[in-house]
Amino acid sequence: MVEGSVKSYVIEAIARRISGDIVFSDEPGSALRKWREYFGVSQHDIARVMGISSSVISDYEKGRRNPGSKFIKRFVLSLIELDSRRGYEKVSVLSRTLNVPLESVLDMSEFDRGVTVSELADLVQGTVLTPELHTDRVVYGYTVVDSLKAIASLSGIQFYALFGTTPERAIIFTGVRAGRSPMVAVRVSPVKPSVVVIHGPRRHIDPLAIELARLDGVPLILSLAKSVDEMITRLRSKSVHPSPYPPVA
User: For residues 127 and 222, what is the distance between their CA atoms, to the nearest angstrom?
Assistant: First the structure.
């Protein structure tokens, strides 16, 4: 479906972690060198991709210059670009630390602004089954999962990984028949999503699923989109940052 977008999301998460490590380091120059060497990239190679001289890279790594946020971003993007030419050897290793269950995730992204429950319902062509629960609540991203695969195979840690960078997001379960199993999974999770969306072949939802949503205070939306692809297309077309990272084949 859109597996490449999920992997691009993981790549972006890795890039943010590397950037954060450099920013928070007491010696950012040493951190730059550490990551360059981890990726097996020479000063000359990364300088060529960045469009600067290798002496500039040397100055930063030796502490003669202090890297700003724009330089760090370009540096990290260049490392990932060079790694992509090698089949994402290092990115693949780093992705395991994120523990994102790619086999269960159909799409995963962040919105570029907060989206209310009512706006989200419009995006997924759905109806809010718990209108009494704060339809003005804001979410900042979404994760679309294959309901059967997620419930059958995910560990607690992997379920937590579905929340991406923030728990203020919508978890969208597909292939749902009655809605009970997804809401039970949410019920036992120590971290709750801001919103749950369910999509499936049936239009009748088990009253227990709605009651579980109310007990957890989690707004529940039933998507009436014709297909999962259509729903994802609508989600991605509305105020979602496209990934700046090359897709993983």
Answer: 5
Contact 22, 67 (CB under 8 A): yes
- 8 Å CB contact between 176 and 149: no
pLDDT band at 155 (very low <50, low <70, confident <90, very high): low
The token pair that represents 183 in the structure block: 């809401």
**3-class secondary-structure state, position 245:** coil
Residue 244 lies in a domain: no
CA distance readout (Å), 220 to 62, 81, 126, 182, 240: 54, 40, 10, 11, 22
In a domain, 248, yes or no: no
Tens of pLDDT, residues 121-153: 999 999 999 999 877 789 988 888 888 777 666
Following DSSP, what letter does each residue of 79-142 receive, concatenated? HHHHHHTTTSHHHHHHHHHHT--TTTEEEEEEEEEEEEHHHHHHHTTEEES-TTS-TT-EEEEE
pLDDT in tens, 216-225: 999 999 999 9
Domain total for the chain?
2
CA atoms within 13 A on the CB side of 242: 5
Q: Do 123 and 205 reside in the same domain of the chain?
A: yes
Q: Is pLDDT above 50 for 249?
A: no
CB 154 within 8 A of CB 99: no
